[in-house]
Structures are given as C-alpha cells and as structure tokens.
C-alpha cells in the first residue's frame, strides 16, 4: 500500500471516529448549551438578546410578535436589573403535547407551541435566587439554542 493511500485511509478513519463521537442531542436540549444561553441572557446587551430570541416569543401566556415589543421587553428587564441570578438547571425535557400547560391552559399557549416551537424544542427548568423559571429553547444561534419564551413557576420575594 502506498504512503498516500495509507494516509487517506487513516484520515478517513479519524473523521468517521469524530463523527461517531458527536452528540446526537440537539443544542436546544443540551444542558451545557442551555447554560451558555443563560449566561448570555444575564450578560449580553439588548441587541444580542434580540438575536438570541425567537419571534414570536411567549412570555407567560402572552404571545409577543412585534420586534419593538421584544426590544422593550429585554430593555425593561435589563433596566430593572432582572437576571437569572445563580441559575441552576434543574431539568431539561423535550417539548411534548402537554408542555404548553406550563404557560397556561389558554388556546393561545397551545397554538403557540403547535405553530412556533420546533421539533427539537425543550423546556429547561431553571432554579435561581428569584425563583424557578421555565425557558423554552429551540433551534440555535451558532452553538447556543434560541430562547423562544419563558415563564415563572413562582417568584421568591
């Protein structure tokens, strides 16, 4: 066997091993990637948060469609000092047919999940110093999932 042929086979085997070791978990369901999203939500400027956010967006049970409303949401949260302080991922669950119940039992929430949450979507339950939050993740911006919506389970005073 020639040296060139041996080298090609070796490189091919390495590439196959690399592909085989890749995670099959979508970024939207990967806790490490979700942690990266949370860090970004806590630190990045509003302009970057807009890029990381899906539109339409689900806040509690309300659908936000307009870009100006999304920008106002992130700006108001920033101005108010809101962060997911000391966030700990409690669970990550792929989106299922009943996931919308976390955001209310309205037809709006059900419609939103059916129409706008991608098949790779997940619900990340996040514990923070301010309470527990549910974040909908899906798709991605580079290696970090997009935020599609969030709600709180209960807010600590």
Report a brief summary of the structure.
By secondary structure, this protein is of the alpha+beta class.
Identify low-pLDDT runs. 16-21
Structural class category: alpha+beta
What is the alpha-carbon Rg in Å?
A: 19 Å
Shape: globular
Distance from N terminus to C terminus (CA atoms, Å) equals 72 Å
Write the element-wise H/E pattern from the N-terminal end onward: HHHEEHEHEEE
Q: What would the average pLDDT be, to the nearest integer? A: 85
Number of strand segments:
6
Largest sheet: 6 strands, mixed
Strand content: 25-35%
Helical proportion? 25-40%
Side by side, the strands of the main sheet go: 2-1-6-5-4-3
Number of helices: 5
How is this structure best described in words?
It is a single chain. The chain is of the alpha+beta class. 39% of the residues lie in helices and 30% in strands. It contains five helices and six strands, in the order H-H-H-E-E-H-E-H-E-E-E. The protein has a six-stranded mixed sheet with strand order 2-1-6-5-4-3. Residues 16-21 have low confidence and may be disordered.
């Amino acid at each position: 066997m020639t040296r060139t042929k041996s080298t090609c086979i070796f490189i091919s085997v390495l590439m196959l091993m690399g592909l085989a070791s890749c995670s099959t978990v979508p970024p939207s369901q990967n806790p490490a990637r979700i942690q990266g999203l949370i860090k970004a939500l806590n630190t990045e400027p509003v302009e970057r948060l807009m890029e990381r956010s899906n539109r339409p967006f689900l806040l509690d049970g309300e659908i936000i469609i307009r870009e100006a409303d999304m920008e106002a949401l992130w700006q108001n949260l920033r101005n108010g000092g809101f962060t997911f302080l000391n966030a700990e991922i409690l669970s990550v669950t792929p989106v299922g047919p009943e996931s919308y119940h976390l955001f209310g039992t309205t037809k709006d929430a059900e419609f939103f999940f059916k129409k706008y949450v991608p098949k790779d979507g997940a619900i990340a339950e996040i514990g923070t110093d301010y309470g527990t939050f549910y974040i909908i993740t899906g798709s991605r911006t580079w290696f970090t999932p997009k935020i599609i919506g969030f709600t709180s389970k209960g807010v600590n005073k």
